[in-house]
Amino acid sequence: MNDPFRLDGKRALVTGANTGIGQGIALGLARAGASVVAAGRSSLDETLGLIAAEGLAGEGFTLALDDPTAAAGRLGRAGALDILVNNAGIIRRADAVDFAEADWDDVIDVNLKAVFFLSQAFARAAFARNAGGVVVNIASLLSFQGGIRVPSYTAAKHGVAGLTKLLANEWSAKGINVNAIAPGYIETSNTEALRADPARNQAILDRIPAGRWGEASDIGGAAVFLASPAARYIHGTVLPVDGGWLAR
After folding, report:
1. What is the CATH number of domain 11-243?
2. What is the per-residue pLDDT for 191?
């Protein structure tokens, strides 16, 4: 009997795969048997090195998302894809009363507009070859909560949750699964300052029922599940992987 959690023979593109959560997802998919195309603006050498060190299949693909439609136009250069993981994202912080239009536009372009147009390009290519596929979007706890001082990020991540549901409504019957993961507090370079602040770190840990920060591999495992045949009847779901944060 075939293992429903394996991805052998599948080709997956992961955006923002140079570090952190994207790197964890890329490595997780490769370990599950997928041939991974690690995409990102900066060097992908570290991620590709980790994949190669385990004798797994991976290659790099330069993809900047500040111009989402141009990025979508380049998707075909990655070859035929079975899985798309929209992970890349940026954040800008300021009080809402002071938030700049440029910071709003930059975040919305990368975190929401690029998610839609990359997904659109992926689906068009899949339909053209009469194939199905999987889209996994990376949402956030701020797809459910408001946060503070991150208005464009919160708006974008709420948008990712809604877009995930809309695309599932349109594409599930055509063979494309669309779901999202909402990571909790994960040990990455983006959260290093929080973890280095003893009071803030403890406050976060006190809220997490699991009692620890998440690891990039925790998100990678969820991505493998949602990309696998085991999740074939899951559509339009935003899956929190947060150690129980939202349950508290």
Report:
1. 3.40.50.720
2. 87
233 is catalytic: no
Angstrom distance (rounded) from CA 110 to CA 106: 6
Q: What is the pTM of this model?
A: 0.97
pLDDT at 2: 85
Tell me, what's the pLDDT at 139? 98
Single out the catalytic residue among 117, 153, 213, 225: 153
Residue 40 token pair: 């990102």
The single residue listed with the structure tokens 């349950």 is: 247
pLDDT at 152: 98
Please calculate the CA angle 176-145-123 and round it to the nearest 5 degrees: 15
Residues of the chain with pLDDT under 50: 1
- Residue spans per domain, the chain: 11-243
The two structure tokens encoding residue 84: 């798309």
Phi, psi at 112, each rounded to 5°: -130, -55
Please calculate the CA angle 241-206-188 and round it to the nearest 5 degrees.
Answer: 50
Q: How far is CA 55 from CA 8, 49, 58, in A?
A: 14, 10, 9
Contact 169, 127 (CB under 8 A): no
